[in-house]
From TrEMBL, chain A:
The chain crosses the membrane at residues 6-23, 35-52, 87-105, 117-135, 141-159, 180-201, 213-240, 252-274, 280-301, 308-326, 332-354, 375-393, 413-436, 456-476, 505-524, 605-625. It is a multi-pass membrane protein. The keyword Transmembrane applies. This is NADH-quinone oxidoreductase subunit L. NCBIfam families: NDH_I_L (TIGR01974), PRK06590.1 (NF005141).
UniProtKB/TrEMBL annotation, chain B:
It is found in: Cell membrane; Membrane. Gene3D superfamilies: 1.10.287.3510. It comes from the Bacteria. It catalyses: a quinone + NADH + 5 H(+)(in) = a quinol + NAD(+) + 4 H(+)(out). InterPro entries: NADH_UbQ_OxRdtase_chain4L/K, NUOK/Mnh_C1-like. NDH-1 shuttles electrons from NADH, via FMN and iron-sulfur (Fe-S) centers, to quinones in the respiratory chain. The immediate electron acceptor for the enzyme in this species is believed to be a menaquinone. Couples the redox reaction to proton translocation (for every two electrons transferred, four hydrogen ions are translocated across the cytoplasmic membrane), and thus conserves the redox energy in a proton gradient. The gene is nuoK. Belongs to the complex I subunit 4L family. NCBIfam families: PRK05715.1-2 (NF004320), PRK05715.1-3 (NF004321), PRK05715.1-5 (NF004323). This is NADH-quinone oxidoreductase subunit K. Its EC number is 7.1.1.-.
TrEMBL record, chain C:
The lineage of its organism: Bacteria, Pseudomonadati, Bacteroidota, Flavobacteriia, Flavobacteriales. This is NADH-quinone oxidoreductase subunit M. InterPro entries: NADH_Q_OxRdtase_chainM/4, NADH_UbQ_OxRdtase, ND/Mrp_TM. GO terms for molecular function: NADH dehydrogenase (ubiquinone) activity; NADH dehydrogenase activity; ubiquinone binding. Belongs to the complex I subunit 4 family.
Amino acid sequence: MDTNLALVLLFAPFLGFLINVFFGKTLGKSLSEIIGTLSVAVSFAVTIYFFLQINQTKQAINIDLFDWIQISNFKVSFGFLLDQLSILWLLFVTGIGSLIHLYSISYMHDDEKMHTFFAYLNLFVFFMITLVIGSNLLVMFIGWEGVGLCSYLLIGFWYKNQEYNDAAKKAFIMNRIGDLGLLIGIFILGHLFSTLDYATLKTAIAGATDLNMYWLSAAAFALFIGACGKSAQIPLYTWLPDAMAGPTPVSALIHAATMVTAGIFMITRLNFLFDLTPDVQSIIAVVGAVTALVAATIGLVQNDIKKVLAYSTVSQLGLMFLALGLGAYEVAVFHVITHAFFKACLFLGSGSVIHALHGEQDMRKMGGLKKAMPITFITMLIASLAISGVPLFSGFFSKDEILLVAFHHNIPLWVVASVASIMTAFYMFRLMFLTFFQEFRGTEEQKHHLHESPSLITFPLIVLAILATIGGLISLPGHSWLNEYLTPILPKLASAEHHLGTTEYMLMAIAVVGGLVGIGLAYAKYIKQNTVPTEDSEITGFSKVLYNKYYVDEIYDAIFVKPINVLSLFFRDTIETALSSLVFGLGKVTNEISFQGKKIQNGSIGLYLLVFVLGLCAIVSYLFLAQ
Amino acid sequence: MNNILNQIGIENYIFLSVILFCIGVFGVLYRRNAIIVFMSIEIMLNAVNLLFVAFSTYHQDAQGQVFVFFSMAVAAAEVAVGLAILVSIFRNLGSITIDNLKNLKG
Amino acid sequence: MNVSLILIILLVGAFATFLAGDKLASKVAFFFGLAAAGCSIVLLNHYNLGENISFINQWITQPNISFALKADGLSMAMLLLTTVLTPIIIFSSFGNDYKNSKSFYALILFMSFAMAGTFLASDGLLYYIFWELSLIPIYFIALIWGNGDAEERKKAVVKFFIYTLAGSLFMLVAFVYMYQKAGSFLLEDLYKLNLTATEQLWIFLAFFLAYAIKIPLIPFHTWQANVYQKAPTVGTMLLSGIMLKMGLYSVIRWQLPLAPLAAKEYMYIFIGLGIAGVIYGSIVALKQKDLKKLLAYSSLAHVGLIAAGTYTLTLDGLRGAVLQMIAHGFVVVGLFYVAEIIFRRYETRAIAEMGGIRSQTPKFTSMFLILVLASVALPSTFNFVGEFTVLYSLSQINIWFAILGGTTIILGAYYMLKMFQHAMLGETNTKIFADVTFNEGATLVIIIAVLFFFGMYPKPIIDLITPSLQEILTQINRIN
């Protein structure tokens, strides 16, 4: 029963994918939309069933299907593990996935390749489910690379534009750099413990008497590189902003709510490993904090509405990594969930705006939309309040916990994270003010067509806004349902203390004030002074550096891409030719020797005879001398 | 027979044979006329024949003399073929100077 | 069932094709190819039932040469690769019009015959004869039916022929040397030889030269790209799909067990060479303008990794190498076929002259993309199973080998996706691209199905090859 249901859960989206791929055109638009959405909804329904079941039984469900890969010292089976963590992840993957499918019906309706879009989305959900429910690292890796592939396909969905294709390719390749790290981590773990299965790995690590800390740290670090690639952390984050080339529902689903959290999922999954490697944990924490800050600073000056959200995503992911690095996995998971709600809401909202403006993404050409698009405005406002950490919204609770943890472990990290949070509040409200307040700055024609989006678009927005508001309830300070729920996965939680002292309240207050300061600054600048960001060419000074993302893309280009291409040319034109002529040279030498030897055969009988006689003499004298 | 060999001595036969052979060699190497070269080869051949006969007597063994008959017969046959070739070359080229015969060069 | 039956079918098939005349040739060849494939599947069945599949007959008494064929799991797997790919390759060529097609198809079958013989032979000299025999048909196929300027083609093909022939001669010398010691060319007799370390080194190197040129490993690869480019696609498929694997197979079957001391001593050098090939091939592939040449260099990178896997002398390395050999055989045939499909429509192999094909033929694009992804070892494709196992074995030797060898998953993605982007995506091409025909589609679908099936369920192949690889490993480890 469980096995069959798990298979339904997994293969419903895959079936949707197959139907849309093979019969999408014949079925017509509405049928393919319905099938695409339903298939994910079915998964969602099954997930809820499992969720209710596990909430009662507290028993993880282990399903082994068949042996997959055979290595000398262990076997990898194709199996699933449905426990608290994976079901939690499934809930928001399929839940938000369903909402975004619904949204896409309307958003992508005019696209001629609608069925392909739904096919890819379904395929993505399929791989994401595989990633989450795999019972070992290698099955997870199928999903891991699979979602990367879908991300590639969807970023490059409008494949006629080569820039989009470049962005897609970049995303895939940067992910693959991380994937290599992940593979190396898998190799080391397989070598050390002769298993890749989470459950066995956990017991093996717990039972090991003399752990090789060097290799264990190496494995953890390699896995972390994999997480960096997928979850867009420094130094592998540059693909995520570029990935905004894809349709907006894709950005919401893949590049905000689900796929980019895979790294956090993996690290939480392997928390027993990372707990043993404090060095790697501190690296994770520092990388997370720095990423949060760097991405937030870049986000301050971006003018493309989706780019702002993209950098905000990177920054928020950084905060989650900070929590992971500090060993507060449950906090990271909490933030993943709330972030999925409000960031999906923000992306979908921005999609609604872009939709209304017929593809305009530059905030300098927006403004004053709140009247024309009230629902979009209100839902986005709620999400912005949530991300800024305004009390009672979900983001407040999760972000606050991260800051709390950071304060307890390391004050500098807390400062960095707090600054990043203030910046977040600032750029989010900069976005809100520029988009929805003041006068409309677009063309007359656009103004004429301004309209609220249809209900298929606003419905997911409303649902997500509600979730963004109340999502914090799952883990209230002091009494956390989430912590209780995750205790089987994170055994440390059972012994953790839950008390709120003065320090905690003070920190909360600081965070709230910080958030409000950020909002206030944005208000002062963009409402009071009515500033509009300048044209690209007029940006100067440090903001120019920020606007150009610290020139990181250019630096990578100069350090990695260009040298490889130059090397390739060098190899192709010089080395290849040299090697080739070396081989031809061997032939030429043989030819030359033969040519020279030919000259001796000049046909002069006299010479032949002379040589003959001399040879005879030589032989005879040799015979005499030898005696 | 014994007496003659005893009187002259086997060494002198060998000297004579070597001298004849060397004359033949030098003839082959220095002369350009194919017929002379040919004759020089015959001299070398006969120098060897002479040795054969001398040693045959010296060892009191008739086999050597039998060999000489063989080699004389072969030489005669060779001369017949060789001269025929020379005649044909002369007809074709108008001379039998061996320096002109370079058609075989590589 | 007699193992030589397959060879006989292929050989008779070659003659029958030649006699069938130009019109029927392709069909007759296809029929015999299928028959051989069917036969080897029956043979596989017998083998799985535990039958000993071998055939031995004294051939020449002085010197002592036997006509000895033996199929263990490894040979079985390679035989299947050969006999299954041959009909696929023949089928894929149905859309083309070759002049003097009876000779063309006869040569294909003849080549298949020689390669199957190479995989089966268990007598050194017999093996050598098959090895060289397989060179003759591809020489004519590339020379007569190839493309491009005739003079340049001749130059490339003659270079290939002489180069590989010259390399193989060293192998012959090694065999003769061992024969003098053992009094027989039979593999098991050669195994029993107790060679000193120096002798083994020389034998190892002699074999290495032959195999390094055939596989090819850098820096012996210079014949490859040009011949791949100039040969007709069918020839390229035969070369890259099967013939490359002859070299790799021979490393496992002959080189390592016959000279284990040398193999162990200089293991690192040869692994390093393989990995250098991975990186070098990937980087060179990046800037190729010709689709077939790009695929040739990608082949160079992949076989480099496979070779590195074999030289680890571990079960994982050998197993991964064999899995990857089979996977690569299928995927590379598919990719070259894609190049051919594009060529049939656009008359070009220059990537720059393609582009914008996707909107015209989504089916073809999807299949192409799947092959590209399989080639970069996306998990759930067969190639991933092989690549993962090989990289794992490398990581057991030294983690840096795995990291450097693993760059293939980054660089591979880079050049393959770049190629795909410029060949297929972008603004719709003004030139019309007709949709794939039934033949073309069917061929690609079969290949893709194989890749996915074994990607998810490689167990049958793993079970098939593991016992014989273990046996070879015992041979390798016999002197310690």
